[in-house]
Write a structure and sequence with these properties.
The protein is an all-alpha fold. 63% of the residues lie in helices and 1% in strands.
Amino acid sequence: MVTLFKRGNRAASRTQGALQPRKVRFDWSETPLEWIPGQPFASHFINEINLLLPAGEFWFCRLYNQALPYVQNDKLREDVENFIRQEAMHARAHGGAVADYLNAHGIETESNTRQEDWIFETLLADEPFGKALPRVLQYRWLVFRLGLIAAIEHMTCVLGKYALENRVWDEAGADPTLLDLLRWHGAEEVEHRSVAFDLYCHLGGGYLSRYYLASIAMPVIFGLWAHGAAHIMRQDPRFQPRKPSAFRPWIWLEWQRQARGGHLPSLFWLTRQQLSFFRPNYDPLHEASTEDALAYLAASPAAARAAA
């Protein structure tokens, strides 16, 4: 049964039960760079997630710690605190994959991660570009950024559901460690899919602002994903003649071609999945299944080691 705690005439928390932070560890010593056999494009494209996520997830944690004093509902406060713990573990797990997996295979990552750091530590910092904001704008800037997180968390929920349901990777003989990383992370994204939206609404985020926040977040995330994947591909001799770049058509066309084989989510499919976020009656609970997420977490090798 879902218990809803009220503030005014709406539910402050839609999260089912209590979120469970899990301290996981992954052994990357046997994971090949081409972790989906015979699929270097898809392998590199998904490997970019390890570079894209850590800076953003640590940024989530910093902002949510700033937001906690404004939360007036006990259940939502508990959700936010456990969300922070889960996101911090996600950042550490992907950061470990960068150091112990991608770097171990000779992939240069610093130039890519430096760009992500600039976005979150300069552009979206408490003092953007080092400029202190007037006090009257500080709370609004906080809520604006929480709205960006809500839009991004809708996207990560969609991707988490995709990872949990994709069986093409298993049929191709994909590396079990990297699969477990994707599915453990994806399952926790599904598990806490309501928290970012609940917090945004609780602190005054409105319906109309969802339009421009999602319109900013979605293309930027897709662009950063393609840009980072191109950076990895340029280090693979097989792709160097193509000169991969997010500013060249090839990488976008190849993304679609690979999606037809089921190794990547289609860009068009991902775009359609984002549309529900624009509905006036949007409810994150309808986007995925908590039961499916918890079922995977009960079977995840990394989560099982954490529980032990």
